[in-house]
Specification:
Radius of gyration: 14 Å
Number of helices: 1
Largest sheet: 6 strands, antiparallel
Strand content: over 45%
Distance between the termini: 28 Å
Number of strands: 8
Helix content: 10-25%
């Protein structure tokens, strides 16, 4: 997993393609659990970055709203904090490959923040 910034200075996560990440060799397609783990990790790092904290928030819930097979290519993700209070934060995560308008996955994560 790689972390960088896009043209607007927003965090951009990348999961470069590796043959070992293919779960379905018949298609071939990236392993669904790999995509989910990438989204969850991206959300956690995004939240830590925006809170300027080294403390890891505790994930309470993670749900995939949409998931389709990922081609054997680099996977990108961007996150948005949709709600943040003193104790809880919600993050929306979108992942795509060639075209951001054609997402591979959309997920939501809910975190418990340390005091």
């Amino acid at each position: 997993m790689e972390l960088g910034e896009d043209e607007a200075g927003e965090l951009l996560f990348q999961l470069p393609f590796a043959e070992r990440n293919v779960g379905n060799t018949a298609l071939p397609a990236l392993h669904g659990g790999l995509i989910g783990g990438f989204l969850e990790s991206s959300a956690m790092l995004h939240l830590m970055w925006n809170r300027e904290s080294l403390e890891t928030p505790k994930i309470v819930d993670f749900s995939l709203d949409y998931l389709r097979p990922g081609r054997p290519q680099t996977l990108y993700a961007k996150c948005e904090i949709t709600k943040q209070g003193k104790r809880v934060a919600n993050v929306l995560i979108e992942a795509w490959q060639e075209d951001r308008r054609k997402p591979v996955a959309v997920a939501r994560a809910h975190f418990l923040l340390s005091q």
